[in-house]
Amino acid sequence: MKRLAWASLFWATSAMAAPGAWVDGVLPVNNPPVMPAVDLPVSLPRANPAHEAWAQQTPDQRLVYNVVTPQILPWPSSLPKDATAPAVLLVPGGGYQFLAMDNEGFDVAKRLDKQGVRVFIVKYRTLPLPDSFAGFKNALAGLFQRGERPASDNRPYAVADTQAAIRYVRGKAAALHVDPAKVGILGFSAGAMTVLATTQANAVDARPDFVGMVYGPTQSSDVPPKAPPLFAVIAADDRFFKDQDLSLIHNWRLSGSGVEFHLYSAGGHGFASQPNGTTSDAWFDQFALWMKASGITAKSDRK
């Protein structure tokens, strides 16, 4: 991938407000949400003495940081218990400093559940930060207010964890009532970066069958062989990616694979579950329609 694309994504976070506007208001979460979770095998070990912790950006937007143990969180399905269905693995963003678990995880999962798919949230490892809430706030201030770059690249660890999640879902397809030929990933911001890198890695047993990227990279010449169908959306005023060209979309299309791309006139960054009165509000309905039109989900899926 071209250097510009990686550099831009490395700065991507899921904050709704402009940099510097929300760090002081972030609060610790003393009772993090309890969800069924499965620990994933770690194929790329990394020492991190910190403890996982949660914070909230707003009362309905929670973040998790210092994720040490990668996990997959199966979303409680409203499908018939024994119905076999496609799987969508959600990969939240957060600049690799945290994961936006409500905006790009739980809230999206609730909507996806109605589309005839089984949903799994990938809780991948984040960058090691100081083992305290004060340390977490200072790290965020460094990113948002002081413009400091993280000291290390978390992308290889996030990719390893996402690959492990794909292997888990596909390997347990019968027990999870998942169609092993319809296991896709949908990522946001840094999660979209992870989705792209996972797809580009093209590992035989961790290759997604369809790919979704929401406010992620649009610039790259690296398209994997026999690339899976791609759905991508971004706003023209996205503060992290507006200087990128659309070479990824162009090259993906030239590869012969299916591409659905939406460039919204406005919407900013982080609009996953945050309607703001722009055409970007339509992204989820368009993703759902794309899955139906592509034959991933059935035409008779619920609304």
TrEMBL record:
InterPro entries noted in UniProt: AB_hydrolase_fold, Dienelactn_hydro, GDXG_lipolytic_enzyme
The UniProt record lists the keyword Transmembrane: no
Stored SUPFAM superfamilies: alpha/beta-Hydrolases
This protein's record includes keyword Disulfide bond: no
Coiled-coil residue spans: none
Domain Dienelactone hydrolase: 158-277
Entry keywords, A to Z: Hydrolase, Signal
Top-level taxon of the source organism: Bacteria
GO MF terms, alphabetically ordered: hydrolase activity
Signal peptide: 1-17
Official protein name in the record: Alpha/beta hydrolase
